[in-house]
Amino acid sequence: MYTIGEAAKILGISSHTLRYYEKETIIIPDRDENGDRRYNDSHIQWLQLVIKLRETQMPILTIQRYASLFLEGDQTTQARLHLLEEHKRSIKQQIRTLNDVDAMLERKIVAYKNYISKHKQNDFKS
Question: More exposed terminus of the chain, fewer Cβ within 10 Å: N or C?
């Protein structure tokens, strides 16, 4: 079991973020006899997924929905699958967009380097 500080360090996020996820019912940590939050390995794995989902622009409301469906049990498996498939489609579109922008930037960078290189050569000829 991990304290909130230990869990935050393992996950590379702040304790504040963990409290926020709890407030938004994305995670429900265990509590010790003093009422302090305790996170187990399953919590850590779940939060690692949450962090990746956020990094790929999944809205908090969608993560909340997924968490809620999970807590409802096996009868929500199809709904959870659909939610993840939708997000995967979104990620694929993000990848296409990023690849397009990457190619555009590469062309611009090459053009600038060529321009700079030509002008430096002309400077030496003067």
Answer: C
